[in-house]
Amino acid sequence: MPVPLQTRLMLDLEPVVEKEIDRHMSMAKEWFPHQYVPWGQGRDFDGPLGGEGWTPEDSKLGTEARESLIVNLLTEDNLPGYHRAIADVFGRDGAWGTWVNRWTAEENRHGIAIRDYLTVTRAVDPIALERARMHHMEVGYEPTHGTEMLHGIAYVSFQELATRVAHRNTGKASGDPICEQMLSRIAADENLHMIFYRNLLAAALEIAPNETMRAVTEVVKAFEMPGAGIEGFLRKSVIIANAGIYDLRLHHDDVLTPVLRKWGVFDRTDLTGDGDKAREELSEFLAQLDAAATKFEERRAERRARQAARKAG
Predict the structure, then answer these.
(1) Which segments of the chain have a pLDDT < 70?
(2) Are 233 and 30 in contact (CB under 8 A)?
(3) Where are the alpha helices (DSSP H) in the chain?
(4) pLDDT given at position 7
(5) CATH code at 125?
(6) Amino acid 289: pLDDT
(7) Per the structure, how many domains does the chain have?
(8) Which domain holds residue 95?
(9) CA dist 123 → 134, 186, 233 (Å)
(10) C-beta neighbour count of 125 within 10 angstroms
(11) Is residue 42 a contact partner of residue 34, using CB atoms and an 8 Å limit?
C-alpha cells in the first residue's frame, strides 16, 4: 500500500524542520513584554479598586490606530485556537512538536504586551475590549485549510508576513513612539516565523512541486486573516484599509509577491499537469487582485481629495 503524501512529507520534511529550528533559535532574541509598557502612565480603573472609569477622552490614539490595535490584539488573543490548529497539522512529536510549542510561546508574548499597553495608556475601553475578547474566543477558530499540511504551511507563510506588515504600520499610525517600538519588536518575531514557514514550504516544493503549487494557489485565492471572525471585522478592516495600514495593495505587493518570488513559482520548470494549471490560476488571480488594488487606491484618493476640499472650504 502506498504511503499517503502527507505522511511521506511529514517524514521527509522533519530534517528541514530541525534545521529551521536551529536557524530560528540562532536568530531569535529574548525579550520581555513588561519592558515595552509605560507603566508610569497607569492609574486605577473603576471597580473593586475604586479608580476612575474609562472615557473616550482618555485615549490619545486616532480612530484608525485604535481600531487596528484592537483587531491585532483580538487576533493574538485566539492563540489557543491557533495552537490547536497547528498541532493538528504538524503533530506534537519530534521536531514538529518542538516547533509548535516554541512558536506558541513566542506568540503568547504579543497579546501580553499589546493588552498591557492598551490598558495602561487607557487607549481603548477596557470593558468593551474584554467583552470583545470573550466573544471572539467563544466563536473559536477553524482554519479554512483543515488539517492539510501543505495548505497549512502555505497559509502561515503569508499570514505571518501579513501580520508583520499590519503591526509595523499600526505602530507608525499610532503617533506614539512607545507603541511603535513595541509593535516593531512584535513584528520582528512575526518575520522570523514567516521565514521558518517560507523555508519549509520551499522544501516541500522540491519534494512535491505539483501538489505544493496547488496548495499555494488555493490558499492565496481563499486567504483571509485569522481575525476575520472578530465581531465588526468588516467595518474595522475598511477603516484600517482606508488608513493604509493594511489594504489590497499591501497584500498584493508586500505579502503575496515577495513570498511567491522567493519560492520562484513563476520560474519553476518542474511543474506538470495540475501543478502547471494551478500556477496559471494563481497568475490570473494575482492580476485580478492587482487590478482591484489599483481601483481601491483610486477611490481612496478621490475620497481623500473630497475630504480635503471640504475642510479647505
Answers:
(1) 1-3, 313
(2) no
(3) 5-27, 63-77, 79-90, 94-120, 126-139, 149-174, 177-207, 209-222, 233-242, 248-250, 257-263, 273-312
(4) 86
(5) 1.10.620.20
(6) 96
(7) 1
(8) 5-312
(9) 19, 18, 19
(10) 19
(11) no
What pLDDT does residue 9 have? 92
What is the C-alpha separation between 36 and 177, in angstroms, rounded? 11
Q: For residues 117 and 35, is the Cβ–Cβ distance under 8 A? A: no
Residue with cell 490606530: 65
Cell numbers that stand for 175 in this block? 503617533
Give the pLDDT score at 53: 95
pLDDT for 2 equals 67
Q: How far is CA 307 from CA 15, 63, 76, 246, 312, in A?
A: 56, 16, 34, 21, 9
Report the pLDDT value the prediction gives residue 79, as an integer from 0 to 100.
93
Q: What is the pLDDT of residues 78-120, one digit of tens each?
A: 999 999 999 998 999 999 999 999 999 999 999 999 999 999 9
Is residue 75 within 8 A of residue 67, CB to CB? The reply is: no
> Residues 6 or more apart from 65 whose CB is under 8 A from it?
170, 173, 174, 175, 179, 243, 245
Q: How far is CA 170 from the centre of its chain?
A: 13
What does the alpha-carbon distance between residue 43 and residue 120 come to, in Å, rounded to a whole number?
7
Alpha-carbon distance of 267 to 170, in angstroms, equals: 34
The number of CA neighbours under 13 Å toward the Cβ of 25 is 10
CB-CB contact of 158 with 255 (8 Å):
yes
Give residue-wise pLDDT tens across range 223-266.
Answer: 998 888 899 999 999 999 999 999 999 999 999 999 999 999 99
